[in-house]
Each structure stands twice: as structure tokens, then as C-alpha cells.
Amino acid sequence: MNNLSRFTKNTYLWVMLSTIFISGCSTTIPDNLIPVSVNKVQQASAWEMQGKLAVRTSQDRFSTNIYWLHSPQRDELTLTTMLGTTILSLTSQEGLVTLDVDGKTYQDTNAQRLLTRVSGWPIPIDSLPLWLTGQLTEGDKLISSDSQQRPSKLINSQQLPPWQVEFKSWQKQSGADVPRLLNLTRDDLRLKLQLNKWQALAPENQTLIKPLSGTENSL
């Protein structure tokens, strides 16, 4: 069994047996960022998303909630159980990556290398911010598009064996088209991502993008 699956199962077991539930750490938008409406995802200086992640291999499978705050200065990724207990927290800022999982803290200068070392899976953490927003990364080969010229299927051969990404459905969030369901496959590793909410963010002093009124589309 891989490390991350063991961490996940241990966390679920602890929650089921314990009479006191510890809620997961909540992540708040930095003070200098506000929710905005955009026409295209490329206009978003930063974004946050929440959804679900399902992982399957030939030996194991599990699913978690996922939260991701992405900005040029900082990335914060959190996986939680359905009850809100934090399984994993990955933070990257100023060239330092910190991974908190199973009560232990790990650090590295490369997020993908760190997550692979701890989880045992080569999860494409560097490419996911673009794939989650329906964009291609370096090394992507577009195989097919839909009727609106959005990616339907691509292959990335920068890592061998290659990753195959399928964009199963799309949705409108924060005024822009973003994927709703994505399937990622590589050998026997299958990742299924569902974006329930995606929110574009921008600095408060940025006036080219319209801020949202009230809490519309906020997470």
C-alpha cells in the first residue's frame, strides 16, 4: 500500500473511532486578494477552488475533498475527509515547499518531488494548476477539442510514462469556462477531479477586472 493511502485510511479510522472530531484547518483568502469576475481564466491573477479528488490504483482507491489556493506568490493545497479532518496540507511559498501529513512535516524546494517522495505517486502537481483551468502546459500534445475549441483530451510526455488528461465536462464559474470533471491516467494510477467551485481572485488595486458584489460565487 502506498504511503498516502495509508495516511488516508488511518485518518478515516481515527475519525470513526474517536468521540471527538477535530475539524480541518480552514484556509482564508489573503487580505490583498478579492473575488472578481473574468471573461477568461487567463485574466485571473490568482484563484481558489474546492471539489473532490478520487484516486485509484491496481491495489487501492480512496476519495477526499480538495481545496486549492493558487497565486503567483503562494500555493496552498489541502485534502480533507468528508467530515472536514485534514489529511494533507501542501504549501509552497518563496521556493520552499512544506508538506504536513500524518502528524509529520516534510520540506523540499520542489513540490512535485516532495509529494512523490512522501505519497509514492508521481502526481503532476506542477501541471495541475493549468489543467484544472483548462489550459495546456509545456510538453502537452492536444489530441482532441470539443465544438467550442476547448481541450477534450491531451497527452503530456515530459514525464515517462506519459500522463493522459481527459476533460469530461465544463462549467461557467466566475464568468469563465472551466472544467468540471477531469480524468488523469498514467499506468495504473487514475485521478478523477471534480471542481465544485472555482473563484477568480485579483489584487484589490487591480481595476481592469470587475469585483463581485456581495458573496456571489465565493467559496
TrEMBL record:
Protein's cellular compartments: Cell outer membrane
One Pfam match: LolB
Chief place of localization: membrane
CDD domains associated with the record: LolB
GO biological process, one term: lipoprotein localization to outer membrane
Role this protein plays: Plays a critical role in the incorporation of lipoproteins in the outer membrane after they are released by the LolA protein.
Name of the protein described by the UniProt record: Outer-membrane lipoprotein LolB
Species, as recorded: Shewanella pneumatophori
